[in-house]
Amino acid sequence: MKIKNVGIAICAGMMVAALGLAGCSGNSGSSAASSSSAAETTEEIVLVNPDKLTIAASLDFPPFENLEGEEAVGFEVDLMKALAEKMGVEAEYLPSTKFDTIIPMITAGGKADVGVSGFTVTEDRKKEIDFTEVICDSNQGIVVMKDSGYTNVDQLAGKKIGAQSGTTGYDWAVENIEGAEVIPFDEMTAVFAALQSGQIDAIASDLPVVQYYVKNAYTDMEIIEEIPTGEQYAIVVSKDNPALTQALNDAIAEAKADGTYDEIYEKWFGVPAE
After folding, report:
1. Cα 226–27–63 angle (5° rounding)?
2. What is the spatial distance between Cα 136 and Cα 252, in angstroms, rounded to a whole number?
3. pTM score, two decimals?
């Protein structure tokens, strides 16, 4: 790839069809990618910083993104590094960014090229930004303290439910838990701290994330229901940069074909990708 001052010139190939990813790899076979045509993606990729793919993420979303000291680690972190390498650039993460500010940041341009943090593909979000092909599937999970006495979602009617602001977990709780006061928090760690201190009665969030927190950090909590919402994660890209979306889709397809994706998946989820 030829590097220019304003970005990278790349002649993209035909758009890859739905990847048919399984498990966290998106087994629905549907494509979340932008509706931009392959012809449109032969234009130049513009990057915020030449030779680098600059990434905005909320780095408190394990096992997808998290901080170990000052280093970003996680499934999506490893995947983004692998995709950047296949594109001939370096992946560079910005300092942790509030989840609900990432899409506006990508839309405005100038600070980050892409956004990741378990972004569920939704029609409302697609009005503002483009998505790559699906990289992961997810459902929702409901968490309570083990000694709370709550055993199902119906018992949470009228209670205080915590969720990260701007997430599908927040939206699900508003729409599905009758009379609940749904309280937004900037970070997932703050949501769990609020439950532990009694400020809220339950948490609604993406199932892989609450499974990680309950298993590794908050063993005094439990998941009382897994909600089959059938969500799919993808990478957020500006609508003004369709060539970047295409390049990422090509890299995703290559990572699937050569086993890179499977290796990263098994590392973080402990089982082979289906």
Report:
1. 55
2. 12
3. 0.81
In three-state secondary structure terms, 92 is strand
| Residue that the structure tokens 């990263």 belong to | 264
Kindly give the confidence (pLDDT) of every residue in the chain, 274 residues in length, as a single tens digit, with 9 standing for 90 and above.
333 333 433 333 333 333 333 335 444 344 454 444 333 445 789 999 999 999 999 999 999 999 999 999 999 999 999 999 999 999 999 999 999 999 999 999 999 999 999 999 999 999 999 999 999 999 999 999 999 999 999 999 999 999 999 999 999 999 999 999 999 999 999 999 999 999 999 999 999 999 999 999 999 999 999 999 999 999 999 999 999 999 999 999 999 999 999 999 999 987 777 7
- DSSP annotation string for 137-193: EEEEEEEEETTS---SGGGGTTSEEEEETTSHHHHHHHHHSTT-EEEEESSHHHHHH
Bond preceding residue 228 cis, omega within 30 of 0: no
Distance CA 117, CA 103 (A): 11
First-to-last alpha carbon distance for the chain, in angstroms, is 33
Query: Distance (Å, rounded) from C-alpha 261 to C-alpha 177?
Result: 36
Q: How far apart are CA 38 and CA 54, in angstroms?
A: 24
From the list 37, 19, 3, the residue with the least C-alpha distance to 250 is 19
- Strand 52-56 and strand 90-93: the pairing is parallel
